[in-house]
Every structure is written in structure tokens, then in C-alpha cells.
């Protein structure tokens, strides 16, 4: 179980969308979970895969078997690279299961999110803040209960995150530097003495490794990123050195003697009350003060001794390697992500107004600490009481409730869908001057006040918008529609009214006229036009009207933003015109465009319709059609009862095509499945001869049509007539 927590801890800080072309800034698609997982693996293990294989994996364009195999390889590589000892197979399987569970939640958010014209920076920023920061913090905190996984590390800081340096230095200290400081503190000897003792115990004849290690550790303390080879080289399993700064209890059995040894150790190491508060897992300074003064019971003194022994235990070489690998991976992910989100900001900048990632860390720490505290305060009363305490404290915090919506236990059934709507609204609005919006205030009072003012303004605007919308709807239904519309010029208000199913058709017409008369961003006008087009298609209009609207739309500004949806609707239009080849071309083009923007569940919907169209009159071919099945699984909100294997799904979409999707326009002749013609031509004569008892005629007919009888029918199963007769 520890494996999962550590891996998720790193994964959160390594969220880097795989950008296939750095020069293209508007590849506005939500990165797949596979892309995030691959980036994490690359930071931890290197890059063993080809560019093509990585691209196909992260975009979901590889076969299902290959996708699952590569996912397993990546997870196995992550666990192996972390070199986590004493983790059994069951725990590893459990860890993988929970990672996949998080992937499914992320998928659900993606299936409800449209990115519009948002760029990759905004998408990455919002997905980090609204999904990964709270979600991963919540999971890691729960996995650290009831016992910390890193109890040998300083408990008063998040050592795997960039943290403010101690003293007057306002810069950030990188995770690797914190691990090096932890190691050197336990050694409590000059680095040169450590290198010499290490070399002696390892029987190294040359000084090259020791000299290299000394130089490297100094560089790592100053922010240089270590390579994986050096970590393994410098700290092999055979390394045996004397840790002079550790606390040992060997041979000390009596409680009072153990406490005396602990007290003497703190005196020897110069550990003040403030230092102990940061180093061991007791956060209350008054409690530590009473313990050190002997003004507590034996149980609390024993707990203090145990926590001190855990924190200052001599580490195994495998533990050192593990800590360095975790710190290295986080640090690399952090620096790459900061370069992408805030390219002009130094990695050690501690100003959250400039280094926006510090806002993500603040949110992460808040969720982590509240989750832990909820378990301490209410865990004994059961999960529900614990969750209620957690939510109550969150609601009283300074955090925008939308930021933690995805982790609220009371909203677990609807949160991902609602979050998709929230993100879509944010992406629809875009960001001004390429400045990432603040998610959290800094820790100074001025920042808190400004954050509250901004949040208050947002809530007031949201309330005013709701009142404005409800007033418009009431006036449209009971007042003067023309006067009501003349007083409204906001696109979002008008378009939301347009989507209100309770308005009569004549009001819809007036809404369209009002929207098209105003000057909005071109894609917004196109969105309203698309809404009109989709409504027209559903009402079985003359095909010439739809054809004209589709062709004229291609010439209008803003078409590119919604090109996928227009191409999809053109595909549906061509199906209704019996132009199946033209429909296939349009749907394939729409599916290709889904690789550049996120359109909620549309990619899966297109895949379903294309799958149905391609098997409507031909044999199922796995190499050609499995990709559509894969896209349905990955990008379509299938209900539980709709999950089925590839062959059964093919039969399902075949029936779906002829029963629901195929609706020819008025005046367009309705065609029947090709299977019907095949059966009429081949099975019909056979049945006729059999009914007439004409065995000689049947024999002559079978001989004459022998080749045709061996051809597969134009049906997904691809059976021949002979097979059909045998199975009757």
C-alpha cells in the first residue's frame, strides 16, 4: 500500500501534458491520464519507448492489448525504479487498482469538459488545481493513516516539495537538497570523512567514486538534479558507515532509562523545542515542552521516545536511494512544469504571486492536513463523522468551494460531472494577457484580503447573472419578448436561454435573431449557429437546407474552433442522404480533429457512430474497427450494462445503426441492410427448393452458386450462407 501513496505523491508534481509540437500553443486538449503516467515514468526511469509508441499511447491510438500491456509495463517500471523493498504482490496489485480508479475519475471529468479556445497552460493549471492537487492530497493523507510512511523524515515540512529555506534566506530549497541535508544530519560528520569511511568499507581501491560523490552531493545541495545512475552508484546495498547523529536504543529496556537516553540525545544534538516540533511527529509545542520537563505521564514519554527513535534511525542504503529517487522525480517534474506555466520565474522563487505552483502546494497541504486531522479528531466515531468534520472545516476555509468539489464525500456521485461543467466554463472564458488566474492567496494578510475581495466579487456576479437569467426567462414567457431581448446583450445569458427547453419555438427564433444581430467572438456566433443546425437536422428538414447551411458555415470566422462538431453533423447529414462513403469521410475527419481540442463525450460519440456505420454493411475486421471500440471505452460515458466485448459491441452498434442512427430525409429512399439482399439472393432460393421438395433443382442451384455460397455475408459476423444453414 505504501507504494501507491508514494507514487501518487510524485505523480501530482509531475503533471506535464505531452505536447507533441511545442510551437503550437493551442493544442487545447485535456492530457490523457496515460500522458501523465508516461511523464512520471520518464522522469523516474528514463525514456525507453519510441516517439511514435509514446504518441499513440497517450492519444489512445494504439490497440487495446498494447495499451493495457504498456500501462502495466509503466507501472511495473515505476515500482521497480523506486526500489521499494518488502512490498508484496497483493499490495502492488492493490496500488495499481487504486491508480486505475483515479484514472477513471479523471476520465469522467474529461468526458464532461470542453476546452474551446483555452491554451495548454490554462488547461494544465486548472486540472492541477481542481483535480490533482486536492485528489492526490486526500489519497496520500488517507494512505498515511494510521502510520506515516516516511516517519524517518522531518514531519514539520513536506520534504518532497520545494520548501522555504530556514533562516533569513527567502528562496526555496529543492527536495533533493532536503534529502541530502537529512542524510548529512544523520551522519553528523564532515562529508570527506563519510566518503573515506564509505570507501574503506566497500574496499574501493580508487578514489574516483568518492571524489565524484563529494562533488555531486555539494551540487545536489545547490539545486543540481542527480541522475539515476549516480544515486545507485553512491549508495549501494553493501555500504556500511557509522551514523553519528542517530538515536539508538539497543540494550535499553526500562522506560525511564529510554526517556533519559532520549533527553540526553536532544541535549547532545542541540535540538530545541522549536526544532523538535519540526522534526518529530508531535506538532503541539506546549506538549513537547511538558514532555521535556517531565510533566507528562509515562505513556506520552514513551510515545516521544518512539517518535524520536523513528525520526533519527540509521537509514538503510535502499531507504537513501528511495528518498533521493522520490525527491529527484518531484524536483524534475516541478522545474519542468514551472518552466511551462511560468517560464520567466526561477525555480527557487518563493513568491506565490510569481511562482504560481506554490498556490498548488498550499492547496495540497491544506487538504492533506485537514484529512489527517479529521482522522485524529473523529476517526474513532466512524467514516461518516470523519467526513462530516472534514467538509465542515473545508467550508470554513478561505478556499473556493469549487476547488475541492471533486473530493467531497457528500458529492462523490455527482462531483466529476459537475467539475467538468465548471472547467468548461473556465475554458470558455479564457484567460487575459496569458496571466494564470490565482487559485489560492499567499500567506500574507494583504494577499488574503485581496483574495477574499476577488472571491466575493465572483459570487456577487454569479448571483446577479442568475437573477438576470431568470428575469429574462420570465419576461420572455409573460411579458414583451422583443423588449426583453432588446435589453439583453450578454452571450452567455442569451445562449443559456436558447437551451431552455421550456420556451416555445417562436421565442427560440427571436433568440437566434438577437444573437446573430450582436457582435460576439466569432466562435460564439458559430456555436449558436451549430445549435440551430442540430435542431433543424433533428426535425427532418429538406436535405438542401442542411447542405446549404453546412457549406456556408465553412466560410465563416470561428468555424475552426467548432470544426469537429460541424464535421460530425455533416456526417450525420450524409447518412440521412444515403451517402455512406461521404459520411465515413466526415466522421473520420471529425475524429481526427478530436486530437486537438477536448469536446466532452463527443469523441466517443463520433467513434460509436463511425463504428456503427462501418459495420452496417460489411464484415467486422478487428484491425480496422477495434480503434472505434477502444475510443468508445475511453471517451464515451458507457453505462455499466453497456460494457461488452468487441464482438458483442459490434453487434450492438449494428442494431443501433439501423434502428436509431439511420433516418433518411423526406424524399430520400430508405435502404435496407445489405445482409437482407444477400439472404434474399442466396438463402431465398434454397428455402424455396426445400419447401417445394425439389432436391434435383436444389443440387443444380448449389453447384452453380458454389462460389457465392462460400463468400462471407455482408454482416458483422462474416458467416457464409452454408454456415447459416448449418446453424439453423
Helix content estimate: 55-70%
- Overall 3D form: globular
Output the radius of gyration: 32 Å
What percent strand?
under 5%
Low-confidence stretches are 1-27
The profile of the biggest β sheet is:
2 strands, antiparallel
Q: Reading side by side through the largest sheet, how are the strands ordered? A: 1-2
Tally the helices: what do you get?
33
Q: How many domains is the backbone divided into? A: 4
Structure description:
- A two-stranded antiparallel ribbon has the order 1-2.
- By secondary structure, the chain is mostly helical.
- The relative contact order is 0.08.
- Residues 1-27 have low confidence and may be disordered.
- It has helices at residues 2-12, 33-45, 51-58, 64-82, 89-110, 120-143, 175-187, 191-202, 208-221, 228-234, 255-269, 273-279, 285-292, 298-311, 317-341, 357-378, 383-395, 415-429, 445-478, 481-486, 491-498, 505-517, 522-538, 543-553, 563-576, 580-593, 602-614, 622-635, 646-661, 674-692, 695-704, 706-710, 721-727, and strands spanning 163-164, 172-173.
- Helix 27 packs antiparallel against helix 28.
